[in-house]
Amino acid sequence: MNRSTSGPTDAPELPSEVLDRWRATSLADVWLRPDDWYHPAVDALVEAFDDGRSPHAAAHRLGAARGRAGVGLGETLDDVECLYRAAHRAPDPDAIRAVAVGWVRGRDTEPALSGLRDPGTGLPTRAYLTERLRETYGAAVGAEHDVPTTHCLVVIDVAVDGLAPWDRAARSATVGRALEQVFGEGHPMAALTDGVFAVLTRRDARVSDLAKTTRRVVERNAALMGIGDTMRRPTRVWVERLPTSHAAAAELLTQLTR
Predict the structure, then answer these.
(1) 20 to 30 Å CA-CA from 37: which of 172, 244, 251, 253?
(2) Do residues 156 and 60 share a domain?
(3) Edge-first strand listing for the sheet containing 196-202
(4) Domain count, the chain
């Protein structure tokens, strides 16, 4: 009688196999620069999966490493979601949240962001948006049109009181990622204060739909990360009309932070 020499078809995968599939999936779908994907923290995260240990500590370490390296929050979270796909597991909201909180801590230690970007979200600060508004009003003078008729702000308010510092950090990171997903490049945006954000965009027929999409994506991301209870419910998103002068627009940004 001939006996099969092949091993069992349901043999557990080696950690290296999951790691290789994770890297291949991420590089194909989300990661921007292949040479900077690897970090020892990815080994720690895969080993935690393989050993049946909680992945949260390793996820926090990986998020911090990505933040220090200047990797965007969206790219960081999408990469970890690729791991869950590669491991054939449903995403763990607590682990995803640990990645985001780690990313915030990593970005907070990056000195290049001082004064330019809010460390909790990776988004530009109110001062940056004020300067971009100055450019918008200046260009309008040369083009002989009024900014209030061509541009507006989409404002997002998720603020609630009484949150722990890292709950606020995870919430801010979630909103920052959502705005990157909805608006992408070419739309100046900023974290005005803890829980309040604004995006400068053209005032056209699509802006109402953009506001609705923003609310939906913010709430979806919050549910994915298990932090829905850290946000105002429902999320407040509205279209804010800009005033006729840059000075008044700068004052408007100040008022929105109160």
Answers:
(1) 172
(2) no
(3) 189-193, 196-202, 151-157, 236-241
(4) 2
